[in-house]
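Dear support,

I submitted the protein below through the web form. The confirmation email said the job was done, but the results page showed an empty box. After a refresh the structure appeared. I'm attaching both so you can tell me whether what I see now is the final result or a partial one.
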Amino acid sequence: MTKSSGMGDQLWVGGYDVGASTNSIGRISGGPAALDYTDITQLAFDREGGERDGGMDIVSYWNPSAGGSHDVYSPLPRTDAIATYAHTTLIGGASANLVGKQIGYDGNRTPEGGFLLNVSALANSYGLQWAFQATAGKRTDAAATAAAAVSPLDQVTATPGAFGAVMWVHLFSLGSGSVTIKAQESSDNGADAYADVVGATTGALAAAPTALRIATGAINVERYIKIVTTGSFTNAVFSVSFARHRTQVDY
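What the results page shows now:
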């Protein structure tokens, strides 16, 4: 069994990199509620999946620098934010993603003089979703970058069926212009030329920081995925996580 630690991981919220301001992540949870369907003829519990949910509990350091964690959390926004926890920064590495509401920004001064703040993100509408990292952590494209120039995400198996996929994008900074970030697919990373995954595109983004959750329709998504950029721009810094549904998903 291959095991790894949680060292060297990353946390991105709404297009901000807050990993260096994070002391720990106490909880990453998600999945369907367990509904009890046990009837009198059965000898043990019978359960079905209910609504999907999820959340993250984050312990943050006090960082009042411009673009730091205090700028991200202190407004206590009522709108949704996108949070991504990235385990390692390798293509194919695991990431946990959610669209959620920020709950709290409560400070706690320790007896030793430290100052830590507690933040929770509670999933809204979609539940927590584990995905593969389709970029090696944060990627910088100085200009438009075609599929031939980037490494693929290998999802290991052929398409499981016409169940679609979800792409999670954080655009951390943009030097100038507008960038479109999209996924392309191939069945064999060779003879089958890469082509756009229908619906897996951000459209033109002209401002950063920002973050998006993008869902395709109920389509077949092939085994190999490359993230490419188009448009006229300079120095786009971004990350992408990609999740191909294995079964039908109803939101």
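Response: this is the final, complete result; the empty box was a page-load delay. The CA atoms of residues 54 and 181 lie 27 Å apart.
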